[in-house]
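Lecture 7, part B: from sequences to assemblies.

Below are the input chains for today's worked example.
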Amino acid sequence: MAVLLVTNDDGVHAAGLAALAEALDPLGEVWVLAPEREQSACGHALTLHRPLRPHQVGERRFSVNGTPSDCVNLGVLGFLPERPALIASGINHGSNLGDDVTYSGTVSAAMEGTLLGVPSLAVSLMDGGEVATAARVARLIAMRVLVEGLPAKTLLNVNVPAGAPRGLRFARLGHRVYSEKIVEQVDPRGRTHYWLGAGPPEWEALDDTDMGAVHEGFVAITPLHLDLTNHRALAMMGDWSSALDGQWRRESTRPAARPAPKRRGRR
Ligand code: MN
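Predicted structure of the full complex, as structure tokens:
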């Protein structure tokens, strides 16, 4: 029976994690390795300066004093009885759409799995949505991934809308527009401080995007590629390359500045 790894960034006690583990149970031997406390918006962080200690909280269930990406590393690189056939991260409490995937611990866990060569998906649920619905969606997609695999360096980012989904739709990432990026306040001692992430999110045109799909009541599935190279820019910047390279070489082959004359006669 294939080993399946389930993790999240909301912590080992989150309802979404339990629902995801239960939903995948018919597909393999599910192991849970999840952060001991909430790590939302921790991004792709790894813990390198202190030991990681898995703590057993149930049958094949462990809390870890680290991040989602730590959990994936433990799981793939030797803690589990065998290499997992699939990694599922979530079900996150709240959406992970568009540009927000870069901050998300949920999505980062799937990125880490992908970098380690394991087919991975991240599942997030819009506020007010039903965990049980998202779990059914996750199982459906996981079954397909187990059969078909995923393209190289590619993970699936899944967002489930609130309410009964009208269907499943593949979509590109949307782009978030930050209108009130920071809120400035003054504390009782007269010092200024700032809040990030305040204000409602605003989005650019929704056509074909993940945000548009969930907005219309569909499950949004976005294949994310971990080759962050902009290949078009790489091709376009050929003239930058020769210019910068030439400039570097010219500056590097200039005669070295003359050494300072030796001081004489000072005693
Ligand atoms: Mn979270």
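Note for the exam: The longest helix spans residues 131-148. Keep this in mind when comparing with the next example.
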